[in-house]
């Protein structure tokens, strides 16, 4: 029996896809002087920034500069480019009516995640928010999802981890949760399918059919 749904945040509940894309574009151009294909940039979605930038330089100081530039862009433009996907508020309302616990497992800094969730009016539905500050290991390791389940007092097999990137699905799978990929991802959907998620949904409200 499913007792909880764990959600990735960006690209799953909140439509910040364009914000993240422009943040990466600006960062790579300003710091490294390079312009990357869109597909290469979207493949970085869902990963901790440190891991994403480590693919382009081994210099720790440059990586820190990349992270700082990315975060500065995000902080500056976040509020104008962040809103829930269609159907998200209705989904969360119905899940709570059914007594299903809800949580967010994100690679985003907690203060920024909370701000975006407050802006999008979804924070009131959440029973737990797990961000990188809360665990030693991060996606795709299972620790973040396992930590959320422990807090909620449930077994991982009683939860579904929902996300728009392979890292989200691998996190859920490594924790022992069921997994659900979203077809409205901006990533190559074949990358999600390679992880062999338990479910795939076309829109947020389809998640109701899984419980």
Describe the structure.
The chain has two domains: 139 residues, HAD superfamily/HAD-like (Rossmann fold); 64 residues, Putative phosphatase, domain 2 (DNA polymerase, domain 1, Orthogonal Bundle). Helix content is 42%, strand content 14%. Strand 6, helix 8 and strand 7 form a beta-alpha-beta unit. It contains nine helices and eight strands. Helix 1 crosses helix 4 and helix 7 crosses helix 8. Strands 5-4-1-6-7-8 form a six-stranded parallel β-sheet. Strands 2-3 form a two-stranded antiparallel sheet.
Distance between the termini: 8 Å
CATH architecture of the largest domain: 3-Layer(aba) Sandwich
Determine the mean pLDDT.
Answer: 95
Strand order in the largest sheet: 5-4-1-6-7-8
Supply Rg: 16 Å
CATH class of the largest domain: Alpha Beta
What's the short version?
The chain has 211 residues and is α/β, with parallel strands linked by helices.
Could you outline the blueprint of secondary structure elements for this entry?
Blueprint: E1 4-7, E2 14-15, H1 17-32, H2 38-42, H3 49-53, H4 60-77, E3 83-84, H5 88-97, E4 101-105, H6 110-119, E5 128-130, H7 143-152, E6 159-163, H8 166-175, E7 178-182, H9 189-193, E8 199-201
Parallel strand pairs: 1-4, 1-6, 4-5, 6-7, 7-8
Antiparallel strand pairs: 2-3
Keywords: Hydrolase
GO molecular function: inorganic diphosphate phosphatase activity; phosphoglycolate phosphatase activity
EC number: 3.6.1.1
């Amino acid at each position: 029996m499913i007792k909880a749904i764990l959600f990735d945040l960006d690209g799953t509940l909140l439509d910040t896809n364009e914000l993240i894309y422009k943040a990466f574009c600006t960062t790579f151009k300003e710091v490294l002087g390079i312009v990357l294909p869109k597909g290469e940039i979207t493949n970085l979605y869902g990963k901790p920034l440190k891991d994403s930038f480590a693919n382009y330089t081994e210099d720790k100081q440059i990586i820190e500069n990349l992270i700082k530039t990315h975060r500065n862009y995000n902080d500056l433009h976040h509020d104008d480019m962040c809103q829930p996907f269609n159907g998200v508020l209705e989904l969360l309302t119905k899940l709570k009516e059914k007594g299903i616990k809800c949580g967010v497992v994100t690679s985003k800094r907690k203060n920024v995640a909370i701000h975006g969730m407050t802006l999008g009016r979804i924070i009131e539905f959440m029973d737990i928010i797990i961000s990188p500050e809360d665990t030693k290991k991060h996606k795709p390791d299972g620790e973040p999802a396992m930590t959320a389940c422990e807090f909620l007092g449930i077994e991982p097999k009683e939860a579904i981890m929902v996300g728009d990137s392979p890292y989200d699905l691998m996190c859920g799978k490594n924790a022992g949760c069921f997994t659900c990929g979203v077809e409205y991802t901006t990533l190559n959907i074949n990358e999600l399918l390679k992880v062999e998620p338990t479910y795939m949904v076309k829109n947020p409200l389809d998640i109701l059919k899984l419980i």
